[in-house]
Amino acid sequence: MRDFSELSEREVLALAIGAEEEDCRIYMDLAERLREEFSASAQMFMEMAEEETEHRRKLLDLYSEKFGQHIPLIRRQDVRGFLSRKPIWQLPKPSIEDVRLLAESMETETKRFYRLAASRATDVSIRKLLGDLAEAEQEHEIRADAIVSKNLTAEVRHGEDAHARKLFILQYIQPGLAGLMDGSVSTLAPIFAAAFSTHSTHAAFVVGAAAALGAGISMGFAEALSDDGSLTGRGTPYVRGSVTGIMTTLGGLGHTLPFLIPNLHLALIIAFCVVAVELAIISWVRWRFMDTSPIRATMQVALGGALVFATGILIGAG
């Protein structure tokens, strides 16, 4: 890689041409990724891509006038100081806010590039050329703000953010909550049954670990096979299955780990406290994301946990 200060005016201009073309392709890729679910933002990025195409045309005209027809291939990744970005197709499905932040970082970087290039030019005509480019980029930033204002009104932005939140709930919160509830509640009975029947923390830990891992695998596969997400919008089955399986395992292991303590009474007390925390977290998630009242969410979760817990004690004590 070369330092930016080592580039000639010709190389700087060639770099700018390549950068404008790359930015245009990025905006077009973003528009394609957003078209189905966020049409207003997709239109915004298409218009920004058109602006980049126009800038590239002006740069090509200026370059051919100054340096001829051959343009050396100089890319941003070949020059120190530029941010390294993965291609859009390599990124997981980004949120609408992630996309907006990406576009903002691109605009900021390009503006700084042109200003630095103009400040380092020594030839009067080249300095004027680079100054024109910096001014054009400033104009592009103003037009981008205007495009955002036109396409993303407060009402549209609110609607897109609400839609993004709905997708987040469908793809992550619901599978994770289902797994956490199953892991935290369903494993109570075998763990405490083993603890009260054997009076051995080791036996309780083995049963709890087996129940948690088995439930995690079972719930993960069940969620992944429930649907492919193409019609429900719940995301890929691999992600949903992984989220559900991991949260199920964590929910079961939470009140299993205290049984690593040799003292049975101390292990039971700590396990009771862990169960209370798990049920409180489940109630909070149901209230925060599932529009369930706090009292109703707490009562539902507490009732289910109490019934399973009592079942485990009755079986273990019998």
Verbal overview:
It contains 10 helices and no strands. By secondary structure, the chain is mainly α. The chain folds into 2 domains: 149 residues, Ferritin; 146 residues, no CATH class. Helix 2 runs antiparallel to helix 4. It is elongated. It starts with 8 loop residues before the first helix and ends with a helix. The model has no long low-confidence stretch (mean pLDDT 78).
Offer a quick outline of the entry.
The protein has about 325 residues and is mainly α. It has 10 helices and no strands.
Topology:
Elements: H1 9-34, H2 39-67, H3 96-120, H4 124-151, H5 154-186, H6 188-198, H7 201-226, H8 237-254, H9 264-289, H10 294-317
Helix pairs in contact: 1-2, 1-3, 2-4, 3-4, 5-7, 5-8, 5-9, 5-10, 6-7, 6-10, 7-8, 9-10
